[in-house]
Design a protein that fits this description.
GO molecular function: oxidoreductase activity, acting on the CH-OH group of donors, NAD or NADP as acceptor
Strand order of the largest sheet: 3-2-1-4-5-6-7
Number of strands: 7
Largest sheet: 7 strands, parallel
Distance between the termini: 33 Å
CATH class: Alpha Beta
Family: Belongs to the short-chain dehydrogenases/reductases (SDR) family.
InterPro entries: NAD(P)-bd_dom_sf, Sc_DH/Rdtase_CS, SDR_fam
Oligomer: single chain
Radius of gyration: 18 Å
Structural class: alpha/beta
Protein name: Short-chain dehydrogenase
Keywords: Oxidoreductase
CATH architecture: 3-Layer(aba) Sandwich
Order of helices and strands: EHEHEHEHHEHEHHE
Amino acid sequence: MKLFSLENKTAIVTGALGLLGKKHCEALARAGANVVVADLDESGAESFAEILGEKHGGLRIDVTSERSLKIARDKIVTRYGSIDILVNNAAINDMFENPGMAKELSAFENYPLDAFKKSLDVNITGVFLASQVFGTVMAGQESGSIINIASTYGLVGPDQSIYRNECGEQTFYKSPVYPVTKGAVVNFTRFLAAYWGNKGIRVNTLSPGGVENGQNEFFIQNYSAKTLLGRMAGPADYQGALVFLASDASAYMTGANLIVDGGWTAI
């Protein structure tokens, strides 16, 4: 079990206050890492870090701002002395304020350009900048693990039928930008793995499937029927995979995409 230990390692999780972000932080903390809870909500990040324990810290980080990332980098290195693990988790997944407009606005023909650009900025540029700023520290150390969080929709096209209700009515469309950005993350992982392999930095993708989180029952049933395990993921179902990628248990693994989706993409 020592292979999975993260004692004396410092881990940064971006988008850390999201449903999976919190679970990522908890898993890394239990494995022994010093966890930096990074999110736009500074007070929330600090509060959650306190819950994790006194050795952990919360910081406001805007992944689209190089300045914000560099300020955070300097604070982290000053406090902990190193940056060993980066989990690029921050991302936008479309939510429409007016549910009555969700079907119309999510349709490709009507999808807003501003929304497309905003997701590109966070989901791709944010991963690029965070990897550049924090990964450069790792390169100087000649060690580190970067884990980019993608999605099954970075591998396959969305099945729009799962968003149809019991009456067969389309309630929503999975938008074009999420699959576009997550597909880019998968290949950016390969670029970084090849570029920094000689610096002792491992870079891998974790591609999760859908997480049950209070969705409509018709959607849960539709989604579950497409998985080999017959269910959506629980929020904690990715913790083992994350610690595996962060730790020496995956010491000879880089440039890979670890798919944890209940069998969604297997058939």
